[in-house]
Amino acid sequence: MQKTPNDALERLDVAAFKAAPKTPLILILDHIRSLNNIGSVFRTADAFLVEKIYLCGITAQPPHKDIHKTALGATDTVAWEHRASTLELVRELQEAGTQVWSVEQAQGATYLDQVKLQPHTTYALVFGNEVMGVSQEVVSACDGVVEIPQFGSKHSLNISVSAGILVWDFWKKLSALGA
Predict the structure, then answer these.
(1) 128 within domain boundaries
(2) How many domains does the chain have?
(3) Residue 6 predicted with pLDDT over 90
């Protein structure tokens, strides 16, 4: 098997990316501390044509060298916006018809493999702070909570890893629905 050279990958340039149809998926980063995590989420969002990223609270904003280091230019392609309040954003998105789900370990959470998505629906996923997770007030305001099943001793994943798992899973499910 031969590796595909970079110049044969048919990558979209910035203009083509912005014009491409987007996956009806929004990512909300709630008080994320690590600039590398933020950059990694941008890069994942670019890979799957995510509609938008919201950077909330203390989450750092581009341009920043440590975000750029892991985003590799994805901050130029993926639409993003900063909001002071995650809770206000959640309510605003819900009023616009978006289904908002927290990614958290919680009583009554739906395991990722059991999540059923609906056609013609935009979803937003809230990823929480590396130590505290998603705040309880935001979890309570969301339409649902999705949990990644874990079987080891830590029961904790890095936020950028969680985002990669969730975005891939939602992309597959939404693509199957023709979204």
Answers:
(1) yes
(2) 1
(3) no
